[in-house]
Each structure stands twice: as structure tokens, then as C-alpha cells.
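WARN retry 2 of 3 for item q-0093 after timeout on previous attempt; input resubmitted unchanged.
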Amino acid sequence: MQATSKHLPQQTSISGSMKKPGAPKRRFDPRAMLSNSEMQAALGSGLLMLLAWAVGGWSEILSTALYVISYTIGGWNKAKEGVETLVKERDLDVNLLMIAAALGAASIGYWNEGAMLIFIFALSGALESYTMERSKKDISSLMALKPATAMRIEKGSMNEVNIDQLVIGDLLLVRPGDLIPADGKVYRGESAVDQASITGESVPVEKTAGSEVFAGTVNGEGPLYIEVTKAAENTLFAKIIKMVEEAETEVPNSQRFIKKLEAIYARVVVASTVALIILPPFLLDWSWSATFYKAMVFLVVASPCALVSSIMPAMLSAISKSARKGVLFKGGVHLENMARTTVVAFDKTGTLTEGTPQVTDFIAGEGYSRQELLVVSASIEHMSRHPLAEAIVRKAEEEGLELRGVEDSKTITGWGIEGQIDGHLWRIGKSNMLDELITSAMNPELEYWKLTRQQLAEEGKTVSIILDGEQIAGMIALQDTVRPQAEAAVRKLQELGIKVAMLTGDRDATAQVIAATTGVDLVFADLLPEDKVKHIKALREKYGHVVMVGDGVNDAPALATATVGMGMGMKGSGAALEIADVVLMNDNIEEIASTISLARRSQRIVKQNMIFAVTVIAVLMISNFVQGIALPFGVIGHEGSTILVILNGLRLLR
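OK item q-0093 returned
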């Protein structure tokens, strides 16, 4: 590239005071919790309750006034939510039950118990809200880094424009410490870019000319000139924002069930409370005050607060923790499904492998210099955009070889490429030409080349030949390299008792080599996209829940068919990211096993919470009727269990 073709300014001032945005800190901050308005209301209600109790000995009127204020501050939001549910959805919920219980306690003189109920109920609600807010911040930490404007270079001058005005091909200047405003490639400059908000990488990544950069990441110490490669609405950043919005609205099946149960259960509790108030004085000869007291205790202990809070805090905490590791769930339902995983099916190219072919063998024929032959090959392939051609050019560049000028270069459709160097014709293409040459010429060297090709092909490599005119000058073998973490990723999944399959459109020989290297259990090769779908369905029928991991457009149908589709965030296609239920933002497949472990742990915690909540409710209800329990004990037992299940779910944030 020539800098002048982009009209770069001669000098650019990059000095000045700039605040480096950086990724938000994610450790626990008590101040953040206390800044929550619900938490402030709960604590204010608690302080007023204590103050009212303290002054009750010498001023009953002042004490009552303080209790009323405590009730109002602590219960206002919950009462509002309960009334809205009643009016809009014509349903009762736990909020109205708790407010009714508190008012009932006050009506029979138990002001302090009612205030305690309001305080603990408000405190548990504030903790749950904090969990949700914390989760949303961890999932969408980059939303705070959303760039608004960009410095666009036009004919040598710089203009600040809105990011919506950027088009593909624009050249931007990103100063040190600034947010990168668009997805693109570095045109000029060197710097370390903090990509933690998108990929979860803790260490900034060095970027040089040709490196890919993403909107919403933070430039380091050096200025970068960036050429825009994607419109604002198609950037990786924009896709993540959309996924975050989906994650916030998607509710797991277990939570849907609890919400339905809550509405039915609330009606039953209200009806039972009314019956307890009316019937015992006539049937059991209880006094009205004793009957009403027991009814209020029942209303408190029977309410499903702890049960309702058993699921979402744990699920959101797990989703939040995954997001910090660069694994983004589009909703709690997918975390729930991932916990049941029995098979993980990988696409090969770009998933288990790097997706970029590398030259593995370069064999020069007799009378040819390997270095000279590599220079010739790279010079001819330099004009081609084919991945194999780029691999050959990259190999020459790695060895520091200088390319030569090529004349009359042209592509031979379906075979390869040819060109003249110093008036000499060279051709590079598929090795299937050997079969034609063997039948038309009796050259003893051809048997050697044929055997060499067969050996390389059996190793899963793609083989090309180099022709000097009509003479075979050499052979090139290329192969997509296995990801460094692929073997460890497969092993960790197998340690969890999960079978690992590989689905690929590549040849069986290549697939078997990759399978032997990585240790996968099941191999399916020579597949079209529809074949992958058939195999995913077969795996689901035979083994149960299947996670499909892929990155390409051809993987999209299989991702949609699997129980959970997992897309590669860095190099994945737009279609794969759109359909995927979970996205590996840093493409680190080693995180899949730990994510499944976290999903399973979250489900264990949810079950623990639900069993504990139901047990506490049952014990308190039975105790109320068999022996009778004091209202304060009922308040502490019931609301204390709610706080405990929320805190149990919060453990996943550690």
C-alpha cells in the first residue's frame, strides 16, 4: 500500500489530555451496591424501623409515624409493582402478598414485625436487582464504550463525523487512548489495542499494518490509521449489542414455570388466608385476634419469595461470569440447555483448526534450488486471492525472500495459475495433472512424484505441483493447522463425560488426521450443509442434547438444529453469529468445557435453592398450625431464606 493513495496528512498532532476509557473493573464494589436506589430504600426502611422501635417506649405517636414512613419507603416500589401486575395482567404476585401481610401485622398492633417484613423483603429485592444489574454490566460492558464519532481523513484533512456516516473504504485516524470507532484493518501505524471488552483477553494485542481491529476497543500508545471494512450496523460491536438485548429478554424455561406457578400459588395463598380468617372462629372456637394473627403468619410464611428468587440470580450470575471470560449467552434458556450437554460437535475448518492453510512441505525436484523455486512460486501466486496462494506467499515472506516481477499472469480455471518470469513459463496447480502426465509420458521420475503425492495426501494435506514449462520442478503440500488448544479442549470435554464429534466437508483422509491429532470420538467427513443437519439430528436422537460449534455460513443450519449453537466470534461469519445461541468472543474453544461445567454448577445451585425454599415454606407452614410460631420468627425464617438463596446464586460471580 502507498500512503499517498489515501491522502494521509503530512503531520498529525496526537498530543493532548485524553482519558483512556479502558474496560470497566468487574470486582465487587460495595459502593456500587449502595448506590442502587432499591438498596438505599431498603436500608432507609431498616434504619427507620430501628428508630421507631427505640422511641416506642416514650412516644407511641412518634413511633407509629416513623413506622408508617418506614413502611412507605421500603414498600413503595414493591406495592407499585404488585398493583401494576394486578391491573395490567390481572394476576396476584408475591409483592402484593408481602405488602398485605405487613399491613395485616400493623393492623393488629405488630408494627415492628410488619416493618421487619418490609425491610427484609425490600433488602432481598434490592439484592436481586443488584444481581441483574451486575450481570447486565458484565455482559454488555462494552456498551459504555460505544464510540459516537470518528476522525475521518478526506483529501489530506481531518473531519470529525458521526460513526453512522462512515462507509467502507473510509480512512480514519485513531489517537492513543481513543476508542476505535469501526471494524477495519490497520492501514498504517503500530499500537497495542485493548480488546478485553469484546474478547475477554486481559493482555492488549499488538496491531500493525494489515491487522484487523474492532469497534469499541481501545487504542494504546501509538496512533493508528484504519481503513473501514464494515458499516456501523454490521460491526462485531453492533452484533454484540443486539445479542445483549436478546439476552436481557430471553427467560429460561424453569423461570417461566415459576412465574406461572407464582400467579396460581398467590391466588391459593390469598384464598387460604381469607378462609383462615373466617372459618376457625366458627369451626374451632378460636378468638378473632388469635385467628387473624395465625392468618397473618400463614400469609408471610406461605409466600413463595424464596422460590421465585431461586433461579434468576444464579442464572444471571453464571451468564455474567461467562461474559467476563469472553463467552456470551443470548439468554438464560441456553445456559439451562448447555447444562444438559452430552455431545459437542465441532466443525473442522476455523474451529478445531485455524482456518488458514500453511505450507507444510516444499519439495524441489532434481536440478532445482528450493529457495529459487519458492521465490518463483510466491511471485506467481502473489496476484491470487486464493487461500493456498496466500499461504505460499506468506511462506516466502517468512523466509525473507524477495519476489520477482511476473508477466502474462493468468488463472487457469479449475486448475491453477501461470505466468512468465524472465521470459520463462511457470505453472502451479492441482496435482491431479500427474495422472494425465503418467498416461501420456513414460518418464521414470513421474512414479516418484506420484508416490510422494500419495504419501502427502494420506497425511491429510492438499498437494500442488510446480511446472517449469512441461517439466515437473517441485511439489507443495499445504494443510490447515490444528488450533494449539484443540487437543486440550477435546480432552477437557471428555473428562466431563461428553462425547466429541467432528463434522466437516473436507476429505475423509484429512478429517482422520485432524481427529487423530485432537482425539475426537466421532468423525463425519465429506459433508454438505444438509448432511451436517442430518448428523446433528442423529446425534440428538442417540445421545440427547448436542452443542454444535461452528464459524461458517455452511454451519448455520447445523447451529440452528443443535440444542445449543455456539459461534466463533472473532472469525465467524455473520450468519453463524446471527443463528448461534452462544458466542465465543475470543474463539478460545478451551472455554467450552469450563462453560458447560459452570452451566451444570448453576443448575445444581438452582436445585439446591428450590429444595431449600420449598422445605423452609413447608416447615414454617406446618409449625404455624401444629405448634404456632411468632410472627417475627415467621418473618425472619421466610425472608431470611429468600436472602440466602439469592446469596447462594451470587456465589457464581466469584
